[in-house]
Design a protein that fits this description.
Blueprint lengths: L20 H8 L3 E5 L2 E4 L1 H20 L3 E2 L5 E3 H7 L1 H4 L6 E3 L5 E4 L4 H11 L8 E10 L14 E11 L2 H21 L4 E5 L9 E8 L5 E6 L5 E3 L20 E4 L6 H8 L7 E8 L2 E8 L6 H8 L4 E3 L2 H8 L14 E5 L8 E4 L5 E6 L9 E3 L17 E16 L1 H5 L3 E3 L5 E3 L1 E8 H11 L1 E2 L2 E2 L10 E5 L5 H16 L4 E4 L5 H11 L3 E5 L1 H6 L1 E6 L5 E5 L3 H8 L3
Helix pairs in contact: 1-11, 2-6, 2-11
């Protein structure tokens, strides 16, 4: 491709709207142009990078035995009503009516459509297993689209769906996708981790996220320093410590704590440590109040609570809502005599002689014990993991890192097939629900994540597999026939050798060409200028580390071949 023939509207200044580096560099490098909030046009150079990702994804999906199809973006509402997600999915689902007043939606995902296909086409165990995928534009009406392609409303996604006869066969399909995803992100040249994850609005019993590690990641993941365990912080299990030595229970006493509502102020006033206090948090779960007991020095992980309750939405109750539900002002609520549904984090049941709110303004109770002074029957892991906790797999040390979700795989089970009556006949002629899996990759997000992970002060540093063009040839003197002929020769030979080569044939100053080459992120830059006339050598520069080497014009193709597998 010739620079003089491609539309790359680069910018010198960082646009004010861009908050993260990938958004800044994609706008500056002319990858994308904003149409409206969260919706972008992919310009030629940016689309070329996306096509790179698509090609890798397509090759590995086909290698794993999946079959490509293309499903409509507009979906009838009745399919979503069958699955029960039409209202449950929330405002991110863009709903509308056509001219015949039929309800429809723009597809944020395609479980309903693919299940409809399966129930019409997969009738026997002989038809299974099947894995169908597509690479297609999705739409989710995000309330706060931001960060460019990282969290837009319209985006490109690969979504695949497997159908099997039973859980054992579904595990085989899941493992194939797990392995394929690892190959995809390895081939993309990204540093990533696969982590246990929450299934969210998609549903299902089990899932893994594939996270690209980057300082500006939206998600925090816990990673073990001693084994391969990793998990999204929302899903990370807290390993319950072994019970310590038995402690004698003391008589419960009420103490006055005037104006002391917060954990730290109560602890300071009573001369106790936060891990000796249990706080009572009130949440509204689908508008119903619930109370959760948590150690004073810990944080509640809301996703764990939401999943345990099986509700669509939870949020902390405000002071008025707490008083309306319990008759107690916030800051003084406790489990003794509480009159709303009560849950407890697992660690609370191991604590002895607790300090809790007294359900009375300006008062707390000390030496409170579960089983003697109050009963809690719903106990689970509700708190957020910290670096002080041991790895739940091996007991090793944990660190927290930031990550960008680029892929997510789910074990869906039979939730969609049962609700939508997608059944097959087994060997004995019995009808059984299809067992499903779901596998997504944010194709456009992969490009943004790659830039977040690979950049410097000058611009993008593309991993070679994702670069729209792997090599750029800079002609620094268009008016010199010898220099121009050499640049053209190298450009043609690289393309004939199978590389995607680019030539900067613009009538621009050398400094501008160097800056644009760095901004656009070509893995290798070949400079043809005055030095070529002196010794028939050209400068080859590696973008990743800035190292340069002089190479003879006849050796350029073999040199690049030794550096990049085409």
């Amino acid at each position: 491709m010739r620079y003089s023939q491609i539309l790359i509207p680069t910018l010198k200044e960082v646009p004010a709207e861009a908050e993260v580096i990938s958004h800044q560099l994609m706008l500056r490098a002319g990858f994308i142009k904003k149409l409206t909030s969260g919706v972008y046009t992919y310009m030629p150079y940016g689309l070329a990078a996306i096509r790179r990702v698509e090609n890798i994804v397509r090759e590995e999906m086909n290698r794993a035995g999946a079959q490509e199809l293309s499903m409509p973006m507009v979906q009838p509402a009745d399919l979503w009503q069958e699955s029960g997600r039409y209202e449950k999915y929330g405002p991110e689902l863009l709903r509308f009516r056509d001219r015949h007043e039929r309800q429809s939606c723009l597809g944020p995902t395609h479980e309903e459509v693919i299940t409809d296909i399966a129930r019409k086409e997969l009738h026997s165990y002989r038809d299974l297993p099947v894995n169908l995928y597509q690479i297609q534009t999705k739409f989710r009406d995000e309330i706060r689209p931001r960060f460019g392609l990282m969290r837009g409303r319209e985006f490109i996604m690969k979504d695949a769906y497997s159908f099997d006869v039973d859980d054992e066969a579904a595990e085989v399909s899941y493992r194939k996708m797990f392995d394929a995803y690892n190959r995809i992100f390895q081939r993309c040249g990204l540093e990533f981790r696969c982590v246990q994850a929450d299934s969210g609005a998609i549903g299902g019993s089990f899932s893994h996220e594939f996270m690209v590690l980057a300082d500006t990641g939206e998600d925090t993941i816990a990673v073990c320093n001693d084994c391969s365990w990793a998990a999204n912080l929302e899903k990370a299990e807290v390993k319950l410590a072994e019970p310590g030595d038995s402690v004698e229970q003391q008589p419960m006493v009420k103490v006055e704590t005037p104006g002391k509502r917060k954990v730290n102020s109560v602890c300071e006033f009573l001369a106790i440590k936060p891990d000796q206090l249990v706080k009572t948090l009130v949440y509204l779960a689908d508008d119903e109040p619930v109370a959760v007991l948590l150690r004073g020095d810990c944080e509640l992980e809301e996703v764990k609570l939401k999943n345990y309750l099986g509700v669509t939405e939870i949020r902390p109750a405000d002071d008025k809502e707490i008083y309306d539900a319990t008759g107690v002002p916030s800051g003084y609520l406790g489990p003794v005599g509480i009159r709303i549904r009560l849950l407890a984090d697992q660690e609370v049941t191991q604590m002895v002689n607790l300090t809790v709110g007294a359900n009375e303004k300006n008062h707390h109770l000390q030496n409170v014990n579960q089983g003697r002074d109050f009963e809690v029957r719903e106990i689970a892991d509700f708190r957020r993991l910290t670096t002080a906790d041991p790895c739940p797999s091996c007991g090793g040390t944990i660190r927290l890192v930031e990550g960008i979700e680029v892929g997510h795989i789910f074990k869906l089970g039979t939730s969609y097939s049962e609700s939508m009556k997608a059944f097959y006949q087994d060997r004995d002629g019995n009808g059984r629900p299809l067992v499903m899996g779901c596998y997504g990759i944010g194709v456009s997000r992969v490009v943004a994540a790659a830039i977040e992970q690979n950049h410097d002060a000058h611009g993008i540093i593309f991993p070679a597999p994702l670069a729209p063009y792997q090599v750029t040839v800079l002609n620094l003197d268009l008016n010199d026939n010898e220099v121009s002929a050499a640049a053209e020769k190298i450009y043609i030979q690289l393309n004939e050798a199978g590389f995607d080569a680019f030539i900067d044939d613009r009538d621009e100053r050398p400094g501008s060409k160097f800056k644009d080459a760095d901004l656009l992120g070509f893995p290798y830059r070949i400079t043809v200028g005055k030095r070529f006339k002196e010794n028939s050598m050209v400068e080859v520069r590696r973008r990743e580390d800035g190292t340069t080497e002089d190479v003879g014009i006849e050796d350029v193709v073999s040199y690049i071949s030794s550096k990049i597998a085409n």
